[in-house]
Amino acid sequence: MEMLQRPRRNRKSATIRNMLQETHLRKSDFIYPMFIKENGNPEEIPSMQGIYRWSLDDSFREIEECMEKGIKSFCFFPAIPEHQKDSTGTESLNPNGLYPKLLSEVKKRFPESYIMTDVALDPYSSDGHDGIVKDGKILNDETVEILAKMAVVQAQAGADIIGPSDMMDGRVYAIRRALDQAGYKDVSIMSYTAKYASAFYGPFRDALNSAPKFGDKKTYQMNPANAQEANIEAQLDIAEGADIIMVKPALSYLDIIAQLKSNFDVPVSAYNVSGEYAMVKAAAKAGYINETAVAKEILLSIKRAGADIILSYFAKQLADEFD
Ligand code: PBG
């Protein structure tokens, strides 16, 4: 056959394929989410093989192993005992609580680590919602007031970047203002900008025992059918002071990642969530797929779509596979 262009020529050896590879996974692309509890032995989360709830002491060991592997960024989620939960998430503002204690210890022991925190009521809420509930409704403005205070408590304890995951309106501005007023001008905000009301969060809610006690999160998290609406959320978050915008989940929302990356000039992150992780683990355990190869392909696709940063439970396990 006569052909001037034969794309296969550029694929004929590993060397040329590597030379022409457009997307690379680097250790520095990743943030490793971790679940923390007050004390006791590490508990594996049944729906998330290889992911544990760590006591403070054990978490330091896990963090140290990650740091040695070149994974230096972490996002922490606290598992709060039921008796400390209430309708306004009071424990989230306790400066001597589990979470601030963890943040300050991690910063002290690992000065080179980069710490992302979670701002939302759900780990602390007796209703299992991200905001205050009244008569079956999630109150926006009352919740935002608490979120702003929570952000300051976390900044005080050593957070590098605050991650509001609650999807209340106006929270980025309120958090930015509260941080600035408290003197934390250098603390950044990674906003969960396009966070969808997704069924992929199931295993995470197992990990924190934080599933909503009634209803669902559809009055605040986005409809999975919507793409254009993500632009509104991004415009607002950036105008309100977000340094980085996030799309969550990642794999079923690659189009949204690509859209925000091309429409906006701030960095975009993506959260490869618990359900996405659990599916790979379960399929691998059943012998249906090659776990490492599939996980890497998924992470590569998230990066290729436009994510500058990826939050993934695979970060530690696959660290040696990254550049
Ligand atoms: C809640 C929160 C959720 C996740 C991160 N923060 C779950 C939810 O919105 O119900 C999910 C993360 C994951 O599934 O890995 N503020």
Question: What this model shows, in words?
Answer:
The chain has 323 residues and is of the alpha/beta class. It is 37% helix and 19% strand. The protein has helices at residues 14-19, 56-69, 98-109, 140-157, 171-181, 202-208, 228-240, 254-263, 274-285, 291-305, and strands at residues 30-36, 43-45, 48-54, 73-78, 114-119, 132-134, 137-139, 161-164, 188-195, 244-248, 268-272, 309-312. An eight-stranded parallel β-barrel has the order 1-4-5-8-9-10-11-12, surrounded by eight helices. Helix 5 (171-181) links the parallel strand 8 and strand 9 (188-195). Helix 3 (98-109) runs parallel beside helix 4 (140-157) and helix 4 packs across helix 5. It is globular and about 70 Å long. It starts with 13 loop residues before the first helix and ends in an 11-residue tail after the last strand. Bound molecules: ligand PBG. Ligand PBG binds next to helix 6.
Q: What's this, in brief?
A:
With 323 residues, the chain is α/β, with parallel strands linked by helices.
Rg: 20 Å
Terminus-to-terminus distance: 40 Å
| Count of discrete alpha- or pi-helical segments spanning 4 or more residues | 10
Main sheet attributes: strand count, strand direction, barrel closure: 8 strands, parallel, barrel
Tell me the number of strands. 12
Low-confidence stretches: none
Structural class of the secondary elements? alpha/beta
Overall shape: globular
Which range does the strand content fall in? Answer: 15-25%
Percent helix, as a range, is 25-40%
The set of bound ligands, ions and cofactors reads:
ligand PBG
Elements, N to C (H/E): HEEEHEHEEEHEHEHHEHEHHE
Strand order of the largest sheet: 1-4-5-8-9-10-11-12
Overall pLDDT level? 98
